[in-house]
């Protein structure tokens, strides 16, 4: 019989990030101490400080990992759509998929931001995530021919944020569907005004 190939054991860094992701996301950044992280990860406390330097930098790494996962999920979802309008509204479809996950507990970046100190690594991680969301909407709005892509992106970003808050606080996964419908109205108004302005030239 062929011998079983054992999967490589996760590294100490991977185990720490997995433990941080589970505990920070479900219970909050401030309420979870380092001792619980290292205990769950099965590593020495010294390993955490050697790898990340501090709890704050571990939180930053956790948020960056969450950012990367969300970005991959959204980009993968958008490959299903063909037109600029479908892709832009597809962001809300991807968001809705996140809302239906069993462990959904709101936006990790929004929660961490409420506790972050100005200028901290945690604030930096939340800012990077926010910039990505805004740039995503801006690029899609520009691709679709909106008259003012930056303004439309700001409006869509507000809908995106509101859907996340509603899904968590109202325990309403359908919030993304409501936000998508509002986004469609905003999109159509923005592109119609662009077409009207172009026709009048």
Report on this structure.
The longest helix is centred in the C-terminal third of the chain and has 25 residues, at 175-199. The chain is mainly α. The radius of gyration is 20 Å and the shape is elongated. The chain has helices at residues 12-27, 34-41, 45-52, 55-78, 84-99, 108-113, 121-143, 149-169, 175-199.
Task: Note the total helix count.
Answer: 9
Helix content: over 70%
Order of helices and strands: HHHHHHHHH
Main pleated sheet? none
Average pLDDT for all residues: 92
| pLDDT < 50 runs, ≥5 residues | none
Shape: elongated
Structural class: mainly alpha
Query: How far is it from the N-terminal to the C-terminal residue, by CA?
Result: 76 Å
Summarize the model shown.
This protein has 201 residues and is mainly α. Helix content is 73%, strand content 0%.
Topology (SSEs and partners):
Blueprint: H1 12-27, H2 34-41, H3 45-52, H4 55-78, H5 84-99, H6 108-113, H7 121-143, H8 149-169, H9 175-199
Features:
201 residues; mainly alpha; 9 helices
